[in-house]
Amino acid sequence: QILNENGARLVSRRHKGYNVEVLDPEAYDTFSAVTSIRQMPGSMLNADRESRVRYLSRRIISTETGIKKEQLADQLFLSASALREPLSMATRLCESFGLRIVSRPGTGMRVEGEEYKRRLALTEVSGEERQDIRHTFQKTLRERPTSLRDSATQRVAGYLIIARNRVQNGHEIRLPDPWRESISGTMFYPLAQSIYHTLEEQYGGYAMPRDEVAFLGILLFSMLDVNLKRDTFSLHPGFAGQAGRLRA
After folding, report:
1. pLDDT tens for residues 202-241?
2. How far is CA 121 from CA 49, 58, 65, 146, 209, in A?
3. What pLDDT shows up at residue 39?
4. pTM
5. How many CB atoms are located within 10 Å of the residue 247 CB?
C-alpha cells in the first residue's frame, strides 16, 4: 500500500520473485531517497555531501513543474543555509551537461535543455541499477564484436532504465538528421536495436522509436573500450575516414 501511494507497486514474477515496478519515477525517487536518508545516522548525513548533491541534481532534472528550495531543504532535513552549498554544486553539475537552471516565482527551480542532455546527467547522478537489466544487456553485448569496460556497462544499464522511464512519461529524444545518419551506417545501430528488442521481449517498455535507438548507438560507440583490437574502419567508417584524412 505504501508503494502504491508513492509511484510504484510490488510485482511477482514466476521463478524470479518479487521486485518493485516504478510507475511514477519522480514520486518514487522522492520516496526512496527520503526513506533511505531517514535510516542513516546523523553523522553519515553530515559527511555524505556527494549523496546530497546527486539527490538534488536528480530532483531538479526530473521535475516537470518545478521544485522550491524549501521543499528540497525539507526532503533532506536541512536548514536553508545548510542547503546553499550542495544546491550550488548540484546547479553547477547540471550546467556542466549543458542544462540551464531556471527559477520562477511560485513554482521554483527546474532545468531546460535537450532531452539527451537530461538523460546523460541523470545517468551520472542516478544510483539506480537493476542487475537483471544489466545482465540482459551484457549478454546481448557479448554476442557482438564489441567491448565495454565494467564502469561503462553500469552506466549504460542505468541509462536504459532512465530512457524507459522518460519515454513512458512522454519525453523522447529528438536527434538532428546528421547524428542519426552518422550512426545508422555502423554496427552500433543494429546493436542498439538488438538490445532494445531483447529488453522489450523480457520486460516490456522498451519498444523505442528510431531516434532513441540511434542515441543508444551513439552512447555505446562513445563508451567503446579504446583497447579493443579491431579495425577502426569497421567500427565507424565515417569517423575512421575523417580521422585518416586529418592524420594525412
Report:
1. 888 899 999 999 999 999 988 876 665 666 666 666 666 6
2. 18, 8, 19, 25, 21
3. 44
4. 0.67
5. 6
**Residue 29: burial class (beta carbons within 10 Å; 0-12, 13-18, 19+):** buried
Burial of 43 (0-12, 13-18, 19+ CB in 10 A): exposed
Q: Which DSSP helix (H) or strand (E) runs through 21?
A: strand 17-22
Return the beta strands (E) in 76-164 as ranges.
100-104, 108-112
Cβ-in-10-Å burial (0-12, 13-18, 19+) of 193 comes to middle
Q: Once rounded to an integer, what is the mean pLDDT over residues 135-141?
A: 85
Rounded-to-integer distance, Cα 167 and Cα 90, Å? 24
Secondary structure class of 111 (helix, strand, coil):
strand
